[in-house]
Here is the input.
Amino acid sequence: MPLTLSSASMFTSCGFSPHHLHPSKEDDEGGLIFQDGNLTSASLDALIQHLIPTADYYPEKAYIFTFLLSSRLFIEPHELLSRVCHKCIEQQQLDDPVLDKARIRKFGPKILQLLTEWTETFPYDFQEEKMIGCLKDIIHRIAPCDEAYWKKMNQLLQTLNQKLASLNHGQEGIVKISAAVSDKVVAFKSKPPSIQREMLSVCSDPYTLAQQLTHVELFEYKV
Here is the structure.
């Protein structure tokens, strides 16, 4: 029996409307259950299917964000991307020796848009080599149909690398600041009691003192 997820928390808050997917029905339709025109629950496989663009369909931006955010409660990002790529290959017949270039030229920009939105919104997902491997594989399959896809892939990877480098640098900064503040606390505790009393006479509230030390360290770090 497929895993069925309640979508009350997944979609209602972002205003997701499935009208563009199926008409409103109070029954199970393709793994999606609707009530009063709203998606109330769905199988994981059905939700993945509706994440995948086709030549004439692209999921709503709210759906993409909400599903990518919520899905990690049920499936690892690398497994999700792997299943998305597998379905794309199967549906678009990307394993065929002779590709339908006309169809893929309609599908290509949409899968590239989906991958771009994913890398921009959740770049940390792509720290794993498995993610980059899946991303490159699907693009390599459609690239022979249009040289522009190679350029788009290079831009996507370059932007992703820059974003990851920026995020990692930010994390290193947080670690350095935390370590510096800890050193200050240790140094303060090791001072003779007279010096401790002198500092406390200037600022008697330990919480305020800790805040001020943090501000000093932040300033020094930026300089």
Observations:
- Residues 126 and 132 are 6 Å apart (CA to CA).
- The first strand starts at residue 4 and ends at 6.
- The chain is about 65% helix and 5% strand.
- Confidence is low (pLDDT under 50) at residues 6-28.
